[in-house]
Amino acid sequence: MAERDVVMVGQRSGLSYSHIRPEWAADLAALEHASYPTASRDDLYDEPSLLLLARDFCEGCFAGFDGDLLVAMGLGVRTRFDLDDPQHTIGDIVPSDHSSSGHAPDGEWYYGTGISTRPEYRRRGIGSELYVLRKQVCRDLNLRGIVAGGVIPGYADHKHDMSADDYIAEVRAGRLYDPTLSFQLRNGFEAPCALANYIEDPAVDDYAALIVWHNPDHRAAGGGRAA
Fold first, then answer.
1. Which end of the chain is flanked by fewer CB atoms within 10 Å, N or C?
2. Which of 125, 23, 138, 144 is closest to 71 using CA atoms?
3. Could you give the strand order of the β-sheet that contains 190-195, starting from the edge strand earlier in sequence?
4. Once rounded to an integer, what is the mean pLDDT over residues 42-65?
C-alpha cells in the first residue's frame, strides 16, 4: 500500500486507520466479500461502487491497516432517514446496480453501510474503534447520528422458533446473545425493530436489525441541542 495519512491509531488493536482511497477499491471489495460469504454479491460493494464512494464521501469511510496489510474497514454515507418509517433495504440506500454510492451530501444521518474485518483479526476491539471514528464524523458534521441495518447472524439458530422482532427483543433484554447485535448494543446503539428483506441472506431469512445511535452533541438548525 502507498503512504497513507493516518487519522487514528487503535488503542487496543494497534491498527492505523485512514480514509479510504480509490486505489484501494479492489482490496476493499475483496475484504467485504470474504466477510459476508452467505450474502448476495448484489448487496455488497464491488470495485466500481467503492471508487464512487471514495470520491463522494471518503471522509466518512475508514480502512484499518496492520503495517501495509488491509485488515478492516468501516464504510458509510450521509442519508435522509425517517425513524417513523424505518422499513427499508440496503438497496434503498446503495443502489443494487451500483450506479451511485448512495451518498446524499445534505443527509442528516450517517448510514453505516458495512464493517468488515479479516477473521484472524476479530475480537481485538476493531469494531469499537471503527464506531469511535464514525461517531466522530457525526460530531464533526453535526449529523443526527448513525443508522444502519445490522446483521443478526445468531438468528439463524432461532428463526424456526421465533420471529426476527422477538429475537431482537430477546437480545436487547440480554436473554440471548448475538455476536453482532450484542456488540452494537454495548456500543450505545438502540435496536427498535427488525428489517424484512433487508439483504439477500438465506441464513437469516433476509432479516437485519435496525440500529440507531443518537449524537448527543447534535445541534438543530436553530442552534440549540436537538431534543
1. C
2. 125
3. 8-9, 16-19, 62-66, 69-79, 109-117, 145-150, 208-214, 190-195
4. 92
